[in-house]
Amino acid sequence: MSNVIPLWRQRDPKGCPVVARLGQIWESLRRDSALPDREALTPAALSDILPNAFLIDRVRPGLVRFRVAGQHLSQVMGMDVRGMPLRAFMEITDRKRLMEKVESIFETCARLDLDLVSDAQGRATLTGRMVLMPVTGPEGETDRALGVLVTEGLIGLTPRRFRIRHLALSPLGTDPAIAHDPSSQDPGTAGRPSLRVITGGLA
Q1: d(CA 54, CA 11)
Q2: Dist. CA 45–CA 54, nearest whole Å
Q3: Which end of the chain is more exposed for a tag (fewer CB within 10 A), N or C?
Q4: Torsion sign across C-alpha atoms 186, 188, 191, 197
Q5: pLDDT means per 10 residues in the chain (203 residues)?
């Protein structure tokens, strides 16, 4: 199987249709002012972005790990990324900067956009976009985030790690105190099965 990643063909104003679709899905799963609930992240809801999608878990401040991840993330790293810290995708020099901004996702209910490049050790340049948006966990805490990683270029020798060329935090207009609204949750979602990894993405 070739590891040449196709060019983004139809670019939205921010650069990538997968990223645009992530925003649409996230908005569609909100209820009033509440954040989307992790239980709403079904394969059907994420079908358009499964290979590029991931879900991270804030274990504690400063430590965020992948719970599940689509096929493309494993291709970029050359291994299963479940259980790995998010910072493992970055060069050592950019890990602290990343984690400082990731904390803002959970503390202030913000969206984080990262413009990335991997070109270390004379390898062919691999550019990328990573976007993370907060969701609530089983206990109603804002301790999960839904995201996507999209790259353009030759993956080549793995693992590929990135530098941050540009980043932006965008407030989502949600008060963290009311980010999770149990009264607005669809009772039909109770007992919905958890996500698991399948070929091609999340389930």
Answers
A1: 21
A2: 13
A3: N
A4: negative
A5: 36 68 94 88 91 96 95 97 97 96 95 95 91 93 96 94 96 55 35 38 44
d(CA 170, CA 96): 19
Q: Which two tokens stand for residue 103?
A: 């904390």
Kindly state the DSSP code that residue 161 receives in the 8-state scheme.
Answer: -
For residue 131, what are the CA distances in angstroms to 50, 121, 134? 14, 26, 10
Distances, alpha carbon 175 to alpha carbons 19, 142, 143, 169, in Å: 24, 11, 15, 16
- Going by their DSSP bridges, the two strands 126-135 and 110-118 should be labelled as antiparallel
Q: pLDDT of 25-80, one tens digit each?
A: 999 999 877 899 999 998 899 999 999 999 999 999 989 999 999 999 999 999 99
Scanning the structure block, which residue is given the tokens 């059907």? Answer: 44
Q: How far apart are CA 161 and CA 108, in angstroms?
A: 27
